[in-house]
Amino acid sequence: MLTFSVLTLFPELLRPFAEEALLGKAQARGLVRVNLHDLRQWSGNRHHKVDDTPYGGGAGMVIRVDVVARALDALRAEAPIDEVVMLTPAGQTFTQASAEAWATQGGHWVILCGRYEGFDARVERLVTREVSIGDFVMMGGEAAAACIMEAVARLVPGVLGDEASHQDDSFSSGLLDYPEYTRPPVWADEGVPDVLQGGNHGAIREWRRSQALARTLDRRPDLLPHAGLMPQDSAELLRLGASAEQLAAWNAPEPPAPKQKRRRKPPV
Ligand SMILES: C[S@@+](CC[C@H](N)C(=O)[O-])C[C@H]1O[C@@H](n2cnc3c(N)ncnc32)[C@H](O)[C@@H]1O
């Protein structure tokens, strides 16, 4: 089973998140486990203080390395730990590929949520990974832990109702997801594309692939070199306005040769 043990100063921020919706259901079904631990338990002082002023001066407080070390020792005494993740804006950016790798690896992951100015630099010696969720700075690691647990847990087999439902997600297929529609069929003068209502599954597949290519070309062309494009995709990208130079830069395969028109046999 995939287990997350989160070390935080605010476990109550994450409790409803871990216990509601699909993550809550996944826990109830024994597919995922989320343990929330208050770092203050290991403060070692009666004021439950886990931070101190930075050496060299400056604003803010820093979380002490000895507190984190005690917490990790205590968790390790209860169950083996496979990975210790420190959340920090200075870490490697977490992506869908990370989510896939973590879900495949499984095991027991400890996530350290910082606050204030973050952790004493010596905490780096205690962790296996330093992870950021993007180039911005939040007040604490709890929201980052929530993002990561959601992204990883939904890839654990059985957590989502329909196993296929994450395969077309943005980034999973290498492209952004195609647009989806549901009822009503017309809203504010905008209808649902006819192809989606026609029941021709081949045509729907083709339309969706084309839409995913168009969205990615328009919004995130940087994804295209890693999207595992097929020759038919190259043809579609050219039709959508990409240039032959762009295709070459993305290492896209050659588009299929245009079909030769069959010559009619002359009448005998
Ligand atoms: C105010 S931040 C500390 C920022 C730190 N002084 C810096 O500039 O790198 C407090 C905590 O929030 C969490 N945090 C903030 N932004 C984050 C991000 N983009 N990714 C992951 N964790 C983040 C980290 O756990 C961090 O220790």
TrEMBL record:
<comment type="similarity">
    <text>Belongs to the RNA methyltransferase TrmD family.</text>
</comment>
<feature type="binding site">
    <location>
        <position position="114"/>
    </location>
    <ligand>
        <name>S-adenosyl-L-methionine</name>
    </ligand>
</feature>
<dbReference type="InterPro" id="IPR002649">
    <property type="entry name" value="tRNA_m1G_MeTrfase_TrmD"/>
</dbReference>
<keyword id="KW-0819">tRNA processing</keyword>
<keyword id="KW-0489">Methyltransferase</keyword>
<protein>
    <recommendedName>
        <fullName>tRNA (guanine-N(1)-)-methyltransferase</fullName>
        <ecNumber>2.1.1.228</ecNumber>
    </recommendedName>
</protein>
<keyword id="KW-0963">Cytoplasm</keyword>
<comment type="function">
    <text>Specifically methylates guanosine-37 in various tRNAs.</text>
</comment>
<dbReference type="InterPro" id="IPR029028">
    <property type="entry name" value="Alpha/beta_knot_MTases"/>
</dbReference>
<dbReference type="Pfam" id="PF01746">
    <property type="entry name" value="tRNA_m1G_MT"/>
</dbReference>
<dbReference type="GO" id="GO:0002939">
    <property type="term" value="P:tRNA N1-guanine methylation"/>
</dbReference>
<keyword id="KW-0808">Transferase</keyword>
<dbReference type="GO" id="GO:0052906">
    <property type="term" value="F:tRNA (guanine(37)-N1)-methyltransferase activity"/>
</dbReference>
<comment type="subunit">
    <text>Homodimer.</text>
</comment>
<dbReference type="InterPro" id="IPR016009">
    <property type="entry name" value="tRNA_MeTrfase_TRMD/TRM10"/>
</dbReference>
<dbReference type="GO" id="GO:0005829">
    <property type="term" value="C:cytosol"/>
</dbReference>
<dbReference type="InterPro" id="IPR029026">
    <property type="entry name" value="tRNA_m1G_MTases_N"/>
</dbReference>
<dbReference type="InterPro" id="IPR023148">
    <property type="entry name" value="tRNA_m1G_MeTrfase_C_sf"/>
</dbReference>
<feature type="compositionally biased region" description="Basic residues">
    <location>
        <begin position="259"/>
        <end position="268"/>
    </location>
</feature>
<feature type="region of interest" description="Disordered">
    <location>
        <begin position="249"/>
        <end position="268"/>
    </location>
</feature>
<keyword id="KW-0949">S-adenosyl-L-methionine</keyword>
<feature type="domain" description="tRNA methyltransferase TRMD/TRM10-type">
    <location>
        <begin position="3"/>
        <end position="224"/>
    </location>
</feature>
<feature type="binding site">
    <location>
        <begin position="133"/>
        <end position="138"/>
    </location>
    <ligand>
        <name>S-adenosyl-L-methionine</name>
    </ligand>
</feature>
